From TrEMBL:
Name assigned to this protein: Cytochrome c oxidase assembly factor 6
Organism: Myxozyma melibiosi
The keyword RNA-binding is assigned to this record: no
InterPro entries given in the database record: COA6_fun (IPR048281), COX6B-like (IPR048280), CX6/COA6-like_sf (IPR036549)
Ranges in coiled-coil conformation: none
Main location class: mitochondrion
Length: 107
């Protein structure tokens, strides 16, 4: 199936095919420890190691869906890493009571 046009409806079978392609692509990214596709070296790694899964994803899903899936993956992985740092006490969030205010001294 070629990439779909945005003005057509997507059937349940087509959605399932897209989700399966997404899961396969994300499994390849995870297996190769590729977190984000924003860096050029990550895009190179994808083209070398996950090209087939990437091609299936882009053929099975609308581009808007692919973009959405990638944003969600980055957000979810970022949240997992943040929670791990908090749990390990390697990241602290401290806020002074008056952190939002600046004391102004007048002469």
């Amino acid at each position: 199936m070629a990439q779909q046009q945005d003005d057509t409806f997507v059937t349940r079978a087509e959605r399932q095919k897209c989700w399966d392609a997404r899961d396969g692509f994300f499994a390849c990214l995870t297996e190769n420890k590729i977190r984000s596709l924003r860096k050029p070296e990550a895009r190179t790694a994808v083209s070398e190691k996950c090209k087939e899964a990437s091609d299936v994803l882009h053929q099975s899903c609308r581009q808007a869906w692919v973009d959405h899936f990638m944003r969600l993956r980055e957000r979810e992985l970022g949240m997992v890493e943040f929670k791990k740092r908090i749990a390990d006490n390697t990241d602290t969030v401290e806020r002074a009571p008056d952190a939002n205010f600046t004391k102004v001294s007048r002469s």
